[in-house]
Amino acid sequence: MGIAVVENIIGQTVRRDIGRMKRFVEGQLEAAARSILSTPNAHVGIVTGFFIRNAVPPSPETDGLGGMAHMAAALVNLGIPVTVISDAPCSKAVWAVTTELPQEVSLEITSLSEASVRLLRDRLSAGERPLTHLIAIERVSPANDGKPHREYGADMSNDTAPLHLLFEDAGWQRPWVTIGIGDGGNEIGMGILPEEIVRDDIPNGRLISAATPADFLIVSSVSNWGGWGLVSAMAILASKEEAARLLADFNPERDRAYLTAAVVVGQAVDDSRIDLAATPKMSVDRLPWEQHAQVLKQLRAHVDGYLADLPRT
Prior knowledge:
Structural class: alpha/beta
CATH topology: inorganic pyrophosphatase (n-terminal core)
Strand order of the largest sheet: 5-4-1-6-7-8
Shape: globular
Number of domains: 1
Low-confidence stretches: none
CATH class: Alpha Beta
Distance between the termini: 21 Å
Order of helices and strands: HHHEEEHEHEHEEHHEHHHEEH
Number of strands: 10
């Protein structure tokens, strides 16, 4: 029941009912965690950054940045190298958050061109320790019309690099396992969902429904929570010594530091509403940081309790 509880915590209803999406992907959180932990010489890439043109100033959302940071911190503490990937419009906020990580990670920033993404793809698949896993968290996917859309339907083609190409096989054999984390139906990875779930359960779902799949999909009520869920699942599956390293920076204090860097330095904004221009503030998906901290505390208490009940070896 350890990981099933994690799924319930990260999928608790907040702004919309994601129950059908969550049920469809049951078990994939555990499978994703096992895949990373069981891979020799793992190297994980994390793609994030959701740019909002009409924000003041134009900036990426806060969502996705904190989840990226917690996953990166956990992995590097375990000795797994991490490459954080984003594009030019989101670069300042993504960079700001990485400066708060406990250890150094690689940072790759592409331009908005397809050529730039393809060059990055070639680099990530080569070298002494090529990428083995690629995670997208709160990163928009093209819909069936070939265009990426914000939640209310606006076309983002001119605002975002086609980083979804890193997750596709067409014309190129990708060498890494892919994991998608999202909350709204328009993110990379959501392409594995039956079309009717997003169409019927998500506002504007018929238009924005993601076309890009992933090998594993993690659905959460806030994308950051999905990243937290992956850290929690890995800790539950790992040895106690490994779990301690995974959880060393998994706490509200570090989360507040990540969000502060995103907002104060990176000018990240709290949502993508069209009726009210988003501004930098200490909130994610229109929920104050304190509410997110309570969810993180729930996860940490559950994981700590689960590990404490394991027999000593």
